[in-house]
Specification:
The protein has 180 residues and is mostly helical. 77% of the residues lie in helices and 0% in strands. It contains eight helices and no strands. The longest helix has 22 residues. The protein is globular and about 55 Å long. The protein starts with a helix and ends with a helix.
Length: 180
């Protein structure tokens, strides 16, 4: 009966089995989670809303997380068009739900994809947006060093070695300071 909890668990399971290389099983979990979280009638079917007392925002946050994981799955299956679509949808839903952490992760992942595509200015914009969101969070420090390294890699590709090294050093310093 607590379908929003089921949707969240399915999205997390989809993430786990995707990392085990079981893409078909991951897709089934994520599609089921999406179906549940897409339905506003399921908003009240939850044990506890957690950080989102607004049940609509909680549902949208679960949907945003599910879309983020679908983007990751599309990355693993080399479906760039759908990968970008799902990351953008995740970002939009996360913003609407007020989930800054997911906005940051979607931007970070979009930056990585645009880097792979050689679209360095777009990649840099996404990574800088991700970094700004992460720096505003109390518990958003885990990926900050990673984002600094991504930004450094972008600057290296743009042949700006000074900015590349600056960002790599910032990432290392951040990770050391935060025991990452």
């Amino acid at each position: 009966n607590m379908l929003m909890n089921v949707a969240e668990a399915l999205a997390l399971k989809g993430y786990q089995v995707y990392h085990l290389g079981r893409y078909g099983e991951a897709l089934k979990c994520l599609l089921r989670a999406t179906k549940i979280a897409n339905d506003p009638a399921n908003e009240k079917k939850i044990f506890t809303p957690g950080k989102h007392p607004d049940l609509r925002k909680k549902r949208l946050s679960v949907l945003a997380m599910t879309h983020l994981q679908m983007g990751n799955l599309m990355s693993a299956t080399n479906d760039t068009t759908r990968q970008i679509f799902y990351y953008n949808e995740s970002k939009k839903l996360a913003a609407e739900s007020g989930d800054s952490a997911l906005v940051a992760l979607a931007n970070m992942n979009l930056g990585g994809k645009y880097f792979d595509l050689g679209k360095l200015d777009s990649a840099l914009q996404f990574e800088q947006t991700a970094l700004a969101h992460m720096l505003k969070q109390k518990n958003g420090t885990l990926y900050i060093g990673v984002v600094y390294r991504f930004i450094g890699n972008i600057y290296l590709k743009k042949e700006d070695k000074t900015k590349a090294v600056e960002n790599w050093l910032q990432g290392l310093a951040w990770d050391k300071e935060n025991n990452n």
